Predict the structure.
Amino acid sequence: MNITVKKTSPATQATKVITDSTAPRQTGAKLVVRALEAQGVTHVFGIPGAKIDAVFDALVDSKIKTVVCRHEQNAAFIAGGIGRMTGKAGVAIATSGPGVSNLVTGLATANSEGDPMVALGGAAPTSESLKLVHQGLDGVSVCRPVTKYSVSVGASDAVGEVIGNAFRAAESGRPGAAYVNLPKDIMTAPCAHDVLMPPTFSGPGPADDAAIAEAARLINAAENPVVLLGLLASKLANADAVREFIGRNNLPVVGTFQSAGALSAHLLENFGGRVGQLANQPADELLDSADLVITIGYDPIEYPPSDWNRTNPRKLIHVDILPADLDNCYRPCVELQGNIAATLNLLTPLLRRANRSAVSDNILRQIISHREELAKAAAELVGTPIHPMRLVHELQPFLNTDITLSLDMGSFHLWLARHLYSFKPRQILITNGQQTLGVALPWAIAASIVRPAEKVLSISGDGGFLFSAAELETAVRLKQNIVHMVWIDGSYDMVGVQEMAKYGRTSGVDLGPVDVVKYAEAFGATGLMIRSPEEITPVLKRALDHRDGPVIIGVHVDYRDNHKLFEMAHQDRFH
C-alpha cells in the first residue's frame, strides 16, 4: 500500500500548534500576561477578584511576581513609583467596580507627575456591559479623565494591540498613566494572536535646527538668562545633557520640586534653589531677575506660570518633549520640541557664555551665603518637639550615600523640598502634581524593588501616614529593609496654617494620637522614636542599618514656624 505524505510549510505548522486540541489553549488572559513579560514587567501589584481572576491565574505560570497589596490605590502608587525610577511602566491590577475606582487616585497622581504606569481592570462580560450587574462599572469612562489612554478590549483578537498601545502611551512623550479594561469573557476566550511589540528603534529626535539656532542667538544676546528645570530634567536620560548645558555656559539655574537631582554637586554655586507652591523663595528672586528664561522639561502643573511670570514681559524658550501649553503667562517665543538630551547636545556648543551677569552673580552669592547661615542656624536648633530645619540639617548627609528618599505631602514636605539638596537623578521622589497624601510608603516599597542595593527612606506626616500605612504589611511580607519616618504634630498642619491665614481659625484639622512604635510592632516591623535632636542621626543610622524588615521611626515636630513657609518673600529666618 502506498502512503502519500503531504508536506506543510512552517507557517501551517505554527497554525496547527495553536489550533491543535492537545496544545495548551491560549486565552485572552494568557496573552495579557505574555504581553507583560515581553514588555519587561517583573512585578504586578494589586488585589484579585472574580472579574480579573483569569489574569491572576495566568500570572502563576509566568516569570512575573504578583504582589498582593492591601488597597488598590497603594498598588497604583507602587506601580507609578516603579515607572518614575525606571522609565518603564509599572503595572497595577484590580477587579471590577470598586477595585477599578480605587485605582483612580493612583492613576491621577502618576499622570500628573509624569510617571509611566499601566493599570489593568476587570470588567463584567461584554454581554452584560450595559446592564446593572454585580460590581458593574464603566471603568473606561471613570479612568479616562486621569489617564493618557483608557480603553476596553472589545474582542480577543485585540488583546495584544491594546496592551501594546497602552504601554506605548504610558511611556512615550511626557509619560503618564494608561488604563485597560479587561472584560471577563474576553479573558477566558481563545486568542490566536501573538504579542504585539513596538518598533525596536522609535522616538523623537532633536528639535528643529532653525529653532535651535534661534534659541542660541537669544541666549547669547540675553543680559541675564536663567534656566528653570522641571520634572523631565531630572530624568536619568536627560540629566547629563542638562548638566553640560548649564556648566559649560555658567548659567544660573532654579528648579521645581520635581527637578530634584538634575544638577550635580559641582553646579551648586549656579543653583538658586527650588521654586514651587508659593513665589516666596530666594530662587524666585533669581528667576524674577531674568530677561530670558529657558525652561527644560517643565510642565505648568509643577509651578503655574501665573505664580512666576504673570507680569514679566521677558522672552521664554521652551525645551521639552511636548509643545507648550500656551496661556496668558506662558508664551514661548521659541519652542524646542523633541528629545530633550539630543536637543541640548546640539544647543550647548552654539552658546558663547562664560560668565554670569552681575545681577545673577550677586543674587547667587547672597543665596550661597544665606544657605551657609541657614545650615549653621539649623545645627544649633535644640529642644523638643524638634524644629523641621534641625531634621533637614541632620538628614542632608544621608543624601550623599546610596539612598532613595520618598516624600509624602504636608508641611514637612515644603521644608524638605526647599532645603534638602540632592545630586542624583530621581534620588528624591516628590509629589507635586496632585500633591497626594499617602504616596511615600508605597513609593518606598517600589524603590526597594527597583534599587535593592540601596537604602530606602520615606517620610510622611502623621496625617498622611495612615492613608497608606496598611501597606506596611506588604513591606513586611516582602522582607524589605525600608525605613519610614513619621513627623508627628497631631493635625493636618499644612491645611491648618492656610486656614488660619485666611479665616483666623482652623477647622477639621485635628487628629487623635497614634503610637507608631506599637503600630509597627503589630505588623511585625520595628518601631523607634527620636526624642531629642541629638538622637536624630544615631536613630536614623540604626534604622538604615537594620536588616530584618521595615522600621518605622516617630518624631514629634515643632511646627511653630510653619506660617513662615507661606509668608516670607525671598528670605528664611528661623528663631
